[in-house]
Amino acid sequence: MLLLLDIDGVMVPANSWRRPEILADGFVEFDSKAVKALNKILHHKDFEIVLTTSHKFKYSLNQWLDIFKTRNINLNKISRLPENIDLTDRKNEILNWYKSQGNIYSLIILDDDKSLNDLPQSLKERLVQTSASVGLTDYLADEVLELAEKNHSEFA
């Protein structure tokens, strides 16, 4: 199962009054509650992370694995959407990627981007949307797991 994961507003709450700490690898520290919630998701389901973040090409995939590991999230495999050379919005970026993939049924989108509310219903029902200023929570982790279970039973 694929988990399309954004960083800003999901793993790093976007709070204008608080500047996030930059770790030695040059990337921002993830929120501890978001780390706990993502680890809960990854512990219960075998997800492959697909980065949708605007930062996705700032680092190589191996560097991304290290970034997650440094933040206490162990991933075996990570991938990313293609480079957004057309500077399209997140909705169209995901939609274009999805159309290019053929028949992918087992995916969940975890993002704060409001443009995703305009996704076609078949994808929108796979969206778990965070509040940008709060990020990923334990409650939303449960929502992801429920959705994963529902998707698994529908397509098993």
Structural description of this entry:
With 156 residues, the chain is an alpha/beta fold. 36% of the residues lie in helices and 12% in strands. It is built from 5 helices and 5 strands. Helix 2 links the parallel strand 2 and strand 3 (78-80). The chain starts with a strand and ends with a helix.
The strand line-up of the biggest sheet is 3-2-1-4-5
Helix content: 25-40%
- Residue stretches low in confidence (pLDDT < 50, at least 5 long) are none
In percent terms, what proportion of residues is strand? Answer: 5-15%
Distance between the terminal alpha carbons, to the nearest Å?
A: 12 Å
User: For the CA atoms, what is the radius of gyration?
Assistant: 15 Å
Mean pLDDT: 91
Class per helix and strand makeup: alpha/beta
Order of helices and strands: EHEHEHEHEH
Shape estimate: globular
Number of strands: 5
Major sheet description: 5 strands, parallel
**What's the total helix number?**
5
